[in-house]
């Protein structure tokens, strides 16, 4: 199947873009975390309570990991609804615009959290992305039910 084939739903592009962005954040997380661990000469303890040792890292280092974790949470709903819309033949038009809006806002959310972590701005961007996801969900519900 190619992007030119009739089976290709345009909404697949933002799905793949968000997966790719998640991998960028994964790389950024380790590109900052590993040097910080080495600078601090941390001795990683597998019996330490989950996350306890990482909490000793500088906040700006932890923010990247926090964002990567956030990209493993709500976006899973985006993937499900976007793929459902693709299968339903509804992966274009307004749904495509909403999907790209969601992805763009999640990327912006990543930059806000990873660089400055200004919580009020981060919450605003998260809320806007959630509204885009809600609209996608309502559109899918309307088609299915």
TrEMBL record:
Keyword Membrane: yes
Organism: Amnimonas aquatica
Pfam short name (any one): MAPEG
GO CC annotation: membrane
Protein name: MAPEG family protein
Keyword Translocase: no
Taxonomy, superkingdom: Bacteria
Subcellular location: Membrane
Main subcellular location: membrane
Key words of the record: Membrane, Transmembrane, Transmembrane helix
Transmembrane annotation, as ranges: 12-31, 77-103, 123-144
């Amino acid at each position: 199947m190619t992007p030119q084939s009739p089976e290709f739903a345009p909404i697949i592009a933002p799905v793949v873009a968000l997966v790719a962005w998640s991998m960028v954040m994964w790389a950024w997380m380790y590109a900052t975390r590993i040097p910080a661990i080495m600078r601090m000469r941390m001795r990683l303890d597998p019996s330490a309570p989950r996350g306890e040792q990482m909490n000793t890292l500088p906040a700006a280092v932890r923010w990247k990991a926090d964002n990567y974790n956030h990209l493993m949470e709500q976006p899973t709903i985006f993937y499900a609804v976007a793929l459902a819309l693709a299968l339903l033949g509804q992966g274009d038009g307004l749904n495509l615009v909403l999907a790209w809006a969601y992805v763009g806002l999640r990327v912006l959310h990543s930059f806000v959290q990873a660089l400055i972590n200004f919580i009020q701005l981060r919450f605003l961007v998260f809320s806007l992305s959630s509204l885009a996801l809600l609209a996608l969900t309502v559109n899918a519900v309307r088609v299915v039910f």
